[in-house]
Amino acid sequence: MTQYAELHALTNFSFLKGASHPTEMVAMAAELRYAAIAITDECSLAGVVRAHEEAKRRQIQLIVGAELRCEDGLTVVALVQSRLGYGRLSRLITKARRAAPKGSYLLRRDDLWELTACLLLWIPDHEINLSDGEWLRTRFNGRLWIAAELHGLGNDDTRLQRLRLAGQQLALPLTAAGGALMHCAGRKPLHDVLTAIRLITPVNQCGYALLPSSERSLREIKRLSALYPASLLAESVAIAQRCAFSLDELRYEYPRELVPANHTPASWLRQLTYEGVAYRWPNGVTEEALALIEHELQLIRELQYEPYFLTVHDLVREARARGILCQGRGSAANSAVCFALGVTAVDPSRQQVLFERFISKERAEPPDIDIDFEHERREEIIQYIYDKYGRHRAGLAATVICYRQRSALRDVGKALGLDPLQIERLILALTRRPASTVIDQKQWLAEAGFDPESRTIQQVMLLSNELRGFPRHLSQHVGGFVIAADTLEDLVPVENAAMVDRTVIQWDKDDLESLGLLKVDVLALGILSAIRKALQYHNAWYRKELTLATIPAEDPETYQMIQRADTIGVFQIESRAQMSMLPRLKPERLYDLVVEVAIVRPGPIQGDMVHPYLRRREGTEAVDYPSEAVRGVLERTLGVPIFQEQVMQLAVVAAGFTPGEADQLRRAMAAWRKEGNLGPFRAKLLDGLRTRGYPEDFAERLFRQIEGFGEYGFPESHAASFALLAYSSAWLKCHAPAEFTAAIINSLPMGFYAPAQLVRDARDHGVEVRPVDVTHSHWDCTLEPDQLQRPALRLGMRLVQGLSKTGVERIVTARSSAAFSSAQDLAARARLNRRDLEALAAANALAPLTGNRHQAAWSLAGVKDDAPLFQHLSVEEATPILRVPTEGQNISADYGSTGLTLRRHPLALLRERFIRRQIHTAQSLRDLQTHTHVRIAGLVLIRQSPGTAHNTTFMTLEDETGVVNVIIWETVATKYRKPFLQSQLLEVGGRVQHEKGVMHVIAEDLVDRSPWLGKLRAPARDFR
Amino acid sequence: MKSVQLPLIPPAPEKRRPNASPRILSVVPPPTGPAPAPIVRRRRAIWLALHFPDWPLRAALSALSAAERAILEAQPLAVVDGDRRSTVLACNVAATTFGIRAGHSLNAAIALSADVQFLPRNSAQEIQLLNEVAGQCQQYTSSVSPQPPNEIALEVRGSLRLFGGLNNFVERIRQDFHRRGFAPQLAMSPTVHSSLWLSRVAKEPTIVGPRDLIRSLSRLPVNALLWPSEVELRLARFGVLTIGDLLRLPRGGLARRIGYERLTELDAAVGRHPEVRRYFASAETYEDRVPLDFEIETTGLLGVILEKSLKRLQLFLTRRSLSVDCIRIALRHREQASTPVTLGLARPTADMQHVTELMREQLARVQLPSPVSALSITVQQLHPAPKATQELFGTAGSSEATAARADAQARLLEQLRSRLGQTSVSSLQSRADYRPERAHAPASTNMQPLTLREHLPESLAPRPLWLLSQPYDVRPAAHRTLRKQSLSAPERIESGWWDDDFCVRDYHRVTSPLGALGWVYRDRLHSGQWRLHGLFG
User: Could you give the C-alpha distances from A22 to A44, A214, A626, A726, B475, in angstroms and in order?
Assistant: First the structure.
């Protein structure tokens, strides 16, 4: 039988050129019984790892290669023969990519010289330029072929003749090759669309830029035999046989400098661990903890993971030296070793988390530790990594940005000539609601005024579906670093990122994982900044030395506050949904917070795990287990699977998955929304459960839960670390409210709440809050002693909109030498420009110097921008006749400038009107019975429509006495669409509902009262 | 006088000028530049301002056909700007009932109602429509000043008596517009600025005399001035809400804070500073009527007379440096509808000698139904004169030659069409399309000279010169022979899925028994039918 190896195939990682996924290419090549397939994307290896996995599964030889187009037009395909050749190709690609802006490359002919241990195919143009061939032959003789690519253009025979003649003249052999751009002929329309997107021209105007036919797909060998002489097909196989490289040969070597000369990695890790033990357990370590540490060290040793722990330790040590708060999380982070190394502050003896649950011997899966750093200072750590290991050894993993429904519809719509307005309507019609059936879609299309049966609409739907999931470009991962022992470029090509001075490697997180390469995630987390600052303020005020690890554990007062859902500003448990859960879940120890953090997420909610768990916790439902094995897995969560790890363990103990299969399941879970291929797992899981005697409904429920987890599944290992931060921030809020509020405002933007709510909450907790004042405020919020010598919160000038930080710095410096005598004095000595002065005046921060804000604004506005101000301000002017600001105007201006007011709440001004309309205050609502009909009104703080809540919207309304949570069903939202969408001040008629300590109002009608606010601008934030 | 270096910010003028009036509302000319001449109190003007709300909607609709308009107007409808947010500029009543209003983003509007229809803004049409309306206003007064985008100011003092006094006049205009389907907001006052500002808030027609001017203006909110938002913001920070607040402020101080031009604008509005207005001139057309002393029965004689008329046109054009691309000649008869002769030109020209030749060609083909008693020449649209090639160096020769060649080609076409009729001559155009039957097509209406812009890629096999307009079915019996006879590797074409002509074909070159070289294809979409599509020379 004739054999063939495809030596030239591009995938969709040659962005907008290839029209098939690497996996599709490989799978098709296997199906067509090719001897091998080369994935040769244009100057890129970004798709080879995926191809490699598929090739292993399909048992077909994969050749790694790349199509290389020199700037002078010379085009070759390089095929890797060995590890050496791979390194050379990777380095060449790096060089070409680094020489050009993101997304492009620049290759010079002479650069090709570096390609040792690679085979080359020359792809001549239509005009066969013999001198090019000659040039190549002198350098690559013996490993150079002329690629004959015949694409059914009507002159294939003459083309072949001319290529043969060229081969004779140059004494070069010919081989057949496909130059495939898609895996099957059916992708031709999508390829046309990709061309149209690339040229930014509608398909019907792309003309000869399109392919004439689908011949550039993987073709049947039978058809190839009709096109090519057998000798050329045989040659392709011979070439493939000379390429013996497999990506499995890549072995990651850790950086060596972390281990001192007289140590092995194991002995060094042991030493560091025990140094940490002495520090963590100053009063002597318990037997139990010691045993745990020894056990873990043993496991690490067996798996040779020491260098990984050393790498992580190095980063954490550096952060600590710089005073940057950080915490590790992830499978290996919550171990006694990590506690000792300072990677985490979670004392392993405080929780039920077992190290072995995260690292298993059977799975050759590398440990996974994400380290969160203060969001404002993470960049310092990134720069430290670059400095320590050098840019040639450290690189950020890529994130492959893929087409999603929205972007696919937009680009396909444009390519098919829809006008931009139509496209936006189409997108809105299709994306506003959750995933659905084809019939639903048709109905929505019809509602939006499209004919779902029209050819164009059908084509847009079909092609945009095909395009979904196609990679668009490589972006940088949020913080996944790969550090190589020698040169990173020999391992994977490196290219420029969009940010200056940033580079990314061509592989993403999953690619690295499938090759078993290790990466360290260096992430940014706002709450760490806030906690560090709060601790700093608190320690300074009370002369203490509290740290994240020494915050008093399991403090009952803190848990009481949490149980009241008094958690504005507290990490993770401050959202509307979390708050409504707290009074029911009543957390009383850290592990309850671990569950709380993980359970209020789309995954568990969709998988219907929340209510069973709550019932079991309240004792209204019996806790039972279908088997002892399952009890082992689920006991700590009362028989309800809540964490990702539990699902995987269940698959192993109850359905007979191997750990490796369970791991594949985990990855499929993460990707199923994108690719939707849980099918094979479903069958295997249900089968496995059935044969082990589990009831059908248990099996079905488990699978539904797995689906629900999807990409939102939350691992216990992460929840544990987050819970500690939640507890720590709650403790600070409980015992140091002024410090805590200052710290959060000084770390904004972060969390859920705007300064207005944070300040209001602080005042509710008895903190005195003082306004922004140019004679007292700094950039950040500061603490001043109140009458009882407790800290009072002085708002910082960072809250003033439009004020420059440098201006504030000059104010503070000038103020330190002498107090300001007047606004003129301030302007002159702090050298402020008009913008800054106007901003200060608008915030009423000049009140002590100038009187009311209108006068301040007037007296400061008469100054020319950036001109020296001193002399002009002293010009005497006629006194203007200005209105005195009313209370309403002041409130409105306060909101406008700083987003909050310390005056009365705007609704207090309107209360009389509300009383006439018999509208309740938030406070008076608490005493009402369930089902009482009430009318309430308030500023809309938050509108939240979680995707999981079946088109229910949660709104938070605020009046002068507090907040009310309103639930708006879809029918009400539709009926009162206008007030629902537009109100800043909303009046709601509805019924009170008390449920287990949580109170809502279920809305029945809505009235927009925004006009009553007049010019008052209230901050509203919409959350999706 | 010694020249003095002026400081960046001039010192407060009210202190330095001894003769400045102590009243707050005194006139202080801007200190930079020469002081304006004292205002000569001429007859006071009276201005009428027309403010057209929802102008973008109006204009966008007016660009549509009546049928389209009727369909759209029945639905909620909004006009959106071309900016990134696609801001709604105006919407109809049906749309406002859904809560949509100007200033919303496109997405917000769709969120309020999925049924809203959208029209893109048509700025050109807005201006054109405003000019049209301004043209119609010339019936009331000759002083018409359009104020884009959506306002017109008329100086009407002279017209008042003509139309029966102030109130009647306003009512008359209101009704006139009402009849034409417009509902402008009307305001009458002694200055352009004030009339415009008043009209922006005038729900009812407003008439303000000189004595009430300041009082009326004082009540207006500052946003009626349509000053940039940063100025509005600044004023809001001073607590300034109305024009009255503004007028109360010290002038020098105010000018420093919002700019002297704005102070001048305020002054102009209250009549303390002269206003400069650009008046409206209607677009020109050309019409030349030639009554004949005697009736003419032959076209030959007509030609001679027309030649003279065309010379007059030539003079008109050169003086104004204009050109024409279409000239309509009407030959009027005593008792019959006139005979039209239209001279369409490939490109605008001012060269009447060429036009005269064309006219003779055309006239020769005209059959006169009865004697001609008068004739007229009209040009509906005048264009700016085409620029002559004026390159001095280098490429001048070649580009001139190209221009000359294009000119010659155009003239040849015009002549051919004059002789054979407008529709009998058309040019072939090649198009970039793999489907052979679509790769060439007659260029439709416009007289593009024949150029080959889109060449078939070199890598493709050559195509036959003679393409059958309808492919010819080959008998099934001959299929096998055809397949054997194929002279070359087939050419595969799979293209056109995006329109009604999806084509999936394999083309072969074959020789017929008679030795002709044919181009046949197998239609892979339609059960492999073989068809003959062309013949090689």
Answer: 13, 18, 42, 43, 45
Residue A265, CB half-sphere, CA atoms under 13 Å: how many?
21
Two structure tokens written together for A856: 């301040």
**How close does chain A come to B118, measured CA to CA in Å?**
8
Q: Determine the distance in angstroms separating the CA of A667 from the nearest CA of chain B, rounded to an integer.
A: 36
Q: Which residues is B331 bridged to in the sheet?
A: B339, B375
CA gyration radius, chain A:
33
Q: How many CB atoms lie within 10 A of CB B147?
A: 18
- Which helix (H) or strand (E) is B153 found in, with range? strand B151-155
Orientation angle between helical segments A590-599 and A610-618, nearest 10 degrees: 150
Considering CB atoms only, which of A153, A424, A456 is closest to B461?
A153
Domains of chain B, residue spans: 64-121, 126-269, 286-384, 466-535
Asked whether the beta carbons of residue A152 and residue B495 sit closer than 8 angstroms, the reply is no
List of long-range contacts for A266-275, beta carbons under 8 Å, 24+ apart: A266/A297, A266/A301, A266/A306, A268/A306, A268/A310, A269/A297, A269/A300, A269/A306, A269/A309, A269/A310, A269/A337, A270/A297, A272/A310, A272/A313, A272/A341, A273/A297, A273/A337, A273/A340, A273/A341, A274/A340
Please list every residue in chain A whose beta carbon sits closer than 8 Å to the beta carbon of residue B14: 878
The rounded distance, in Å, linking the Cα atoms of A76 and A66 is 8
User: Model confidence over B279-290: pLDDT tens digits?
Assistant: 655 456 677 778
If we measure between CA atoms, which residue out of A765, A825, A758, A764 comes closest to residue A796?
A758
Q: Does the structure show a pLDDT above 60 at A363?
A: no
> Cα–Cα distance between B175 and A683 in angstroms, integer?
78
pLDDT in tens, A923-937: 888 888 888 899 999
Distance CA A952, CA A971 (A): 9
Q: Which of A556-570, A646-660, A765-779, B91-105 has the lowest mean pLDDT?
A: A646-660
Strands (E), B192-351: 206-207, 286-296, 322-333, 339-349
Amino acid type, A296: E
- Tell me how many residue pairs between chain A and chain B have CB atoms under 8 A apart: 169
Of B112, B249, B432, the CB nearest to A881: B249
Q: How far off is chain A from B536, nearest CA to CA, in Å?
A: 14
Q: How far apart are CA A571 and CA B85, in angstroms?
A: 34
State the Cα–Cα distance between residues A316 and A499, nearest whole angstrom: 25
Determine the residue type at B464. P
List, for residues A501-544, the tens digit of each pLDDT value.
Answer: 778 899 998 888 888 777 888 999 999 999 999 999 999 999 99
Q: Which among A125, A149, A153, A227 is the top mutation candidate for probing chain B, defined by the most B β-carbons within 10 Å of its own β-carbon? A: A153
CATH number of B64-121: 3.40.1170.60
The CATH number given to B286-384 is 3.30.1490.100
Residues of A in contact with B491 (CB under 8 A): 152-155, 212
Chain A residues within 8 A of B114 when measuring between CB atoms: 425, 428-429, 447-449
Structure tokens given for A265: 């990695």
Residues in chain B: 537
Phi and psi at A790, nearest 5°, equal -90, 160
Q: What is the pTM of this model?
A: 0.71
DSSP A822-891: SHHHHHHHTT--HHHHHHHHHTTTTHHHHSSHHHHHHHHHSS-TTS--HHHHTS--PPP--PPPPHHHHH
What is the interface pTM, i.e. ipTM, of the complex?
0.73
Instruction: Evaluate whether B364 touches B299 at the Cβ level (below 8 Å).
Output: yes
Q: Is B399 left (phi over 0), alpha (psi -120 to 50) or beta?
A: alpha
Nearest alpha carbon to residue A53 among A34, A65, A39: A39
Best residue of A191, A982, A983, A1008 to probe chain B, by most B CBs closer than 10 Å: A982
